[in-house]
Amino acid sequence: MSTDFLASSSALTDAASPPPLLRVESAAVYLALLSGVVGGLYGLIVSLIYPQLPLNGEWSFGVFAAIGSSVIAAAISAIGYWGSRRRPGQEWRRSLAPWKFTVNTISVVIVHTALAYLATYVVYLVLALGFVDLPIVAFWAIVLMAVTLGMTAYIVFLSVSRMTTQRMSSLLMAFIVLGTLTAMVTTPDKEWWQVHFSHLGTFDDMSSWIFNGTLIAGGLLVTTFAVYIANDMHTLVDAGRLSNRSSPRTVSTLFVIMGVMLAGVGLCPVDVNMTVHNLSASGMAIIFMVLLIGGPRFLRGMPRTYFVSAWSFLGALVASIVLFIPAVGYFSLTAFEIIVFALIFGWIAVFIRFLGVAGQHE
C-alpha cells in the first residue's frame, strides 16, 4: 500500500471525526454566556409585556422562546460557519466558487435556525404537558430564556464549527424527523393519516408551515450536502478507492436534483399545485432508484457490505411499490409515502457512514 494512499485515508478519517479544538470550545462557551445575558433581558421584556404567560399555546412563552432561539441560531450559525472555513479539515471550502459557498452558508443557517425553533418549541410543548396551566412569572421567564438561548448558542456554534459530511447527514436526519413529527402532533386534522402524508401541508396554520418549511429547508440542505459528498468522493478517487473518476460529479449532481425535488414538494403543497407536487415527489423517488441501481457503476470500489445494504433498500422499495399498487392494495397512500420517505433518508445515512470509512484500511 502506497504512502500517498495512507495519507489520503488518514485525511479522510480526520475529516469525518475532527478532534475538538480548544479555541472552538472556548468560543462556544463565551458565546453561550453572551447569549444567556441576551436571553435574560429578552425574558424580562417578554414578562413585562405579557405577564404570566402559559408554557404552550398561541403566543405562549414557548413560542417566544422558540423565536428567540431561532434568532440566536441564525446569528451564531452564520458567524460560526463562515469563520470555520479556515480551520483544520475545512480548508477545501475556500476553493469553492463564491456563489456556491454563499448558498451553502445560507442553507446551513436556515436549517440551524429552523431546527432551533422546532427543538425549542417541542421542549416547551413537552414541559407544558408536565406542568399543566403553569404561568411563567418574571423570575422564571428570565432564567428559562437565559438558559434556552445560551444552550442554543453553545450547541449551534459547535455544530457549524466542525461541519463534516457525517455531521451534516445527522443534522439532515434530525431536522426532517423533528419537523415532520412536530407537524403531525400540531396539525388541526387529527385524522390526516387517513388521506395522505402530504395532507399535513394543506392547512393554513403553523403545522403546515412547519411541514412545508421542513421540506424546503431540507431540500436546500441536501444541495449543500452534495458539495460535501463530492469533496469526500474526490478524496477517495485520488486515493484509488473509487475507480470511476466521474463518480463525484455524477453522484453530487443526482443529490442536487433530489434536493430540488424535495424542496419542490414543500414549495407546491398538494392543494396548491398537485401536478408539480406529484412530479417533485415522483422525481425524488426516481433519483433514489437511479442512485441504488447505478451504484455498482457510480460507486465502484465501495465496500461490498455497502452494496448489500443498497440492494436491500432497493428490494424494500420494490416490495413497497408492489404492496401499494391497486391490484394488491395492502398499503394506503399514507403508509406508502412514509415508507418511501424513510427508505430514502435511511439510505442516505447508510451511504454516508460507508463513505466515511471507505478510505480506511482493514
From TrEMBL:
**Entry superkingdom:** Bacteria
Keywords, A to Z, come to: Membrane, Transmembrane, Transmembrane helix
Keyword Membrane among record annotations: yes
Organism name: Microbacterium deminutum
Protein name listed in UniProt: ABC transporter permease
Pfam families reported in the protein's UniProt record: DUF998 (PF06197)
Keyword Cell membrane part of the UniProt annotation = no
Q: Give the transmembrane ranges.
A: 27-49, 61-82, 103-131, 137-158, 170-188, 208-230, 251-272, 278-299, 311-332, 338-356
Q: What is the lineage of its organism?
A: Bacteria, Bacillati, Actinomycetota, Actinomycetes, Micrococcales
